[in-house]
Amino acid sequence: MDFFMQCLSGAKPMSDAWKLCKRWLQLLLLSTLLGVAYAETPIQAEEFQLLRNDEGIFLNTRLNFELPPSLEDAVNRGMPLSFVLQADVMLERWYWSDKLVSRTERFVRLSFQPLSRRWRVYVSAQPLQTSGLGVSLGQSFDSLPEALQSIQRVSRWRIADAALIDLTVKQRVEFRFKLDLSQLPQPLQFGVLGGGSSGLEYKHSVKLQEDSFK
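Given the sequence above, the corresponding structure tokens read:
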């Protein structure tokens, strides 16, 4: 908080403290706008299909959502956005809490490249760190809508081994898609969480039965 006190007490314009204070104030203002916009941007799934074969269980879905204007402005200014897809196979137990049978995750990062004026989407089975993308697949797009479509569409995502699925017991798949708030700058995290909003998020649960698979 020292830089805030220096700003308020008359830090010289364009000094390091002044610039830092200005940047954080901008982020705090943006976080307030984001907190409002998130609540007005629900995610819907146009389809949700489970496929099963000898290799495992696969998920197909298409999520329908748009970025709030304030969040779109932030990513246009160079702030990358990270998303997490998570699929859990749960065993239902009446005598105890449900048991996690398996968990599969997919990590996605959306960013804008100012020099090339193109959008980049990275996908990885491991968390994408800020300092490096590690082992990930990347695609470039000419526009934000095209980049978002690649994120919204999930095709033949292998979410569990076939050996883990037992239709003689009560199992279900819990799917979750969310904006990864932990990858946002701290002022934005504070604004979103402080406003009581969980951000862009979608949840869906399906009981595993013979007719659950296409």
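Helices lie at 2-8, 16-39, 69-76, 144-152, 186-194. Try to locate this feature in the token string yourself.
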